[in-house]
Design brief:
The complex is a heterodimer.
Chain A: E1 5-6, E2 8-11, H1 27-32, H2 42-52, H3 64-77, E3 81-86, H4 96-103, H5 105-119, E4 121-128, H6 131-142, E5 153-158, H7 168-175, E6 198-203, H8 204-208, H9 210-221, E7 232-239, E8 245-250, H10 255-262, E9 271-274, E10 281-282, H11 293-298, E11 307-311, H12 316-330, H13 336-353, H14 359-371, H15 380-394, H16 396-403, H17 408-411, E12 427-428
Parallel strand pairs in A: 1-12, 2-8, 3-4, 3-6, 4-5, 7-11
Antiparallel strand pairs in A: 7-8, 9-10, 9-11
Chain B: E1 2-5, H1 15-19, E2 24-26, E3 32-34, H2 45-54, E4 60-63
Antiparallel strand pairs in B: 1-4, 2-3
Classes of the chains: A alpha/beta, B alpha+beta.
């Protein structure tokens, strides 16, 4: 039986949270605190976004200012721009986007309206799969008049949830009347997106940083974080036999400090699963890392969407097998390299977990983890190759032990989950 | 000439890799990916055109010159 607990929601000790808050946000209160302040100079705000160094929070960490400028310029040349707030959080181990939409809809809508003014869009969409979030955003929109939104027309679009549904071209495809599956590139949405127009698809947490930037400017924004990873970010922490938590952290805090905040003794940590599932596994080297893009990248991984699953009792090989099986099931079923590659890599990781894989199987897995990279229309196959490569590189001794069928943890009952470290399976957000 | 390969359409017939192997690589299951950025120099145009016309599922598409500019990431 699954026990349902409440999600722990907390800001890093000593910081004034920018994204988290207690209780649900009401329109009057948000407005009173300076929200929806009219934007007089969109170019000035774009300049501040540039100086702030704000990176996208959906996983790719692309500089928002670069994307905004490209969409605005292409829109001017080719018939206008559209903005999409992407709240379709496909990573099961992440909860931050749903939390923001459910509890701070006005912060997200305020950011959406600012982004639309920067790229000169008249039309915006809030793209979600979570029906609770959709209801909250619809209610919030009913509070707003045309003047508050500076004439922007906003609609809420709900899709069936799926790992690939949150990919930016899948969002565009849905808004153009198609299925929630990615398309091959080019074109990318900034070139040709919703209704053929230049389209900004931006993660809701990224957008939620814009009202702060409008109010306080880039220098204050940079008061937290590192020079290459400025500001705070939302981290979904799961695993370690603890209830999941959503923390707002300044980029650059030590991972070990996060462990003490979360109540996890460092000696119990075997490794982590990073970036939701996308950035693969990291061994105990993670204990020396700080939580910013540059530090995690040096470990061959990525901060991604800020979801970190901490492995204590769970065997990393068995975790990899469950996540690979998830990729095998949840890929879009469109690209041959992906549906064949994830099925093949899933078969080997499961055989490895069960102690029946051969040296030849392992050699194939190693080769696929290299040659299949970049062979899908979206990044799902890259996530699967990240997982395979990181398992082999980060846990060579453990892999060798599984080849000899010598893992006592797996013998005692291997870790197995349809959606490993899924937040909503154990809590109410 | 500029082309793209739509991998969501590719069904793994492999005709492209027979006609223009330096532009189309096949995975273990015979599915193609495009090598390079899709720009085809004049001397390779015929071979790539043969691949394009021979693809049973029309997964290879000739692109017109794009009027849009790509965003440049200042960090890269």
């Amino acid at each position: 039986m699954t026990t349902t607990t409440a999600l722990t929601v907390a800001a890093w000790p000593g910081i004034q949270p920018r994204l988290l808050r207690h209780g649900d946000e009401a329109y009057a209160e948000y407005r009173k605190q300076g929200g929806y302040h009219p934007l007089d100079d969109a170019d000035h705000l774009l300049g501040e976004v540039d100086l702030s160094g704000l990176l996208g929070r959906g996983g790719a960490a692309f500089p928002l200012a670069v994307k905004l400028r490209a969409v605005r310029d292409n829109g001017r040349r080719c018939g206008g721009a559209v903005v999409v707030a992407n709240g379709e959080e496909g990573e099961p181990a992440s909860i931050k986007d749903r939390w923001l939409l459910r509890h701070r809809p006005h912060l997200v809508l305020d950011g959406l309206r600012l982004a639309a003014q920067i790229v000169e869009a008249e039309r915006a969409h809030v793209y979600v799969s979570d029906s609770h979030a959709a209801d909250v955003v619809e209610t919030a929109l009913a509070d707003l008049d045309a003047a508050t939104l500076a004439g922007l027309s906003v609609s809420v679009v709900t899709v069936a949830p799926g790992y690939v549904a949150g990919e930016e071209t899948a969002a565009v495809r849905v808004l153009n009347g198609g299925p929630a599956k990615p398309t091959d590139k080019p074109p990318r949405p900034f070139e040709q997106g919703v209704a053929g127009m230049s389209t900004l698809v931006s993660n809701v947490e990224t957008l939620a940083n814009l009202p702060f930037l409008q109010r306080h400017g880039s220098a204050t924004f940079r008061a937290h974080g590192t020079s290459a990873s400025p500001g705070t970010f939302l981290a979904t922490i799961t695993g370690a036999e603890r209830p999941p938590a959503l923390y707002e952290l300044p980029h650059g805090v030590a991972f070990t400090d996060l462990l003490s905040l979360h109540g996890v003794p460092t000696d119990r940590v075997r490794g982590v699963l990073m970036g939701g599932y996308f950035a693969g596994l990291v061994n105990r080297d993670m204990l020396d890392a700080t939580l910013d893009h540059e530090s995690v990248r040096r470990l061959g991984s990525a901060l991604g969407c800020g979801a970190i699953a901490i492995l204590t009792d769970d065997c990393p090989v068995a975790v990899a097998a469950s996540v690979m099986a998830y990729y095998d099931r949840e890929n879009a079923g469109q690209c041959g390299s992906c549906f064949n590659g994830t099925a093949a890599m899933s078969a080997v990781t499961e055989a490895l977990r069960d102690g029946v894989a051969t040296q030849d199987d392992l050699a194939r897995l190693e080769r696929w983890s290299v040659v299949l990279r970049g062979r899908g229309a979206c990044a799902t196959l890259d996530g699967a190759t990240n997982l395979a490569a990181s398992l082999l590189i980060q846990f060579p001794q453990l892999v060798a032990r599984h080849l000899q069928n010598g893992c006592e943890t797996c013998h005692a009952g291997a870790f197995s989950a349809v959606r490993p470290y899924e937040v909503e399976a154990v809590m109410t957000a | 000439m500029r082309i793209k390969l739509d991998r969501t359409m590719c069904d793994g017939f492999g005709a492209c890799a027979r006609h223009a192997p330096e532009y189309f690589s096949l995975d273990d299951w015979g599915y193609a990916s495009l090598e390079g950025n899709g720009a085809i120099p004049e001397q390779d145009r015929d071979a790539v055109m043969r691949a394009l016309l021979d693809c049973p599922v029309h997964a290879i598409i000739e692109l017109s010159d794009s009027p849009t500019a790509a965003p440049q990431d200042a960090r890269s």
